[in-house]
Amino acid sequence: MDKVLKRFTEILCGTLDNKNQVDTERAEGKQIHPYAKHVTDVCDHKIINRPEGHKGLYILEESYYIYPDKKEVELKPLLFYITSDNDRKAFLQSVQIPDKFALEEVTNINKNLIFDFNDLKISNFGTAEYTLQETDQFTVNHITDMGNGIIFQLTETLSDGYLSVMETVTKNGVKLTPYDTPIEYIKIE
Length: 189
Description:
By secondary structure, the chain is mainly beta. The protein has helices at 3-12, 19-27, and strands spanning 14-17, 35-42, 47-48, 57-66, 74-84, 89-96, 115-116, 121-132, 138-147, 150-159, 162-171, 174-175, 183-187. The strands form 2 sheets. The chain has a 10-stranded antiparallel barrel with strand order 1-2-4-5-6-8-9-10-11-13.
């Protein structure tokens, strides 16, 4: 694994949540952000029929959300394919999880979870270009036209033990994201 991918996975992988942020908001009288927890790990061992010499890493991110004034947990697993220039850039692409999998199956601890490389397709998310800064943080500001008037913008800063993540969705110029500040994740494992 090259130095950029190694650093990227050191920061991104593990268990992170924004419990501190949500607790602070509740103590101040109004929860703005959803409680969010990510369980993220390299999952190359779960990919079969991968062509020889196919570089890069696959990462599975289990995202669990509890939205303000709700009690049920919403699971949103994401599969990413990450490459680098082996200098200062990591390139992240979102991979569509095949429909044959139930959401609750798509977890890092599921030893029976296997993805066939031939079934994997890159989503229309595009390629997010993360830059390793002199401060040893990765930053990205990625904008994607998802079609049907929907624009998705991802602005992140990834550093040791901390992720600042702002996902903004607009449709026909109207902002759909219910908050204006990033979710602040802290590594808990």
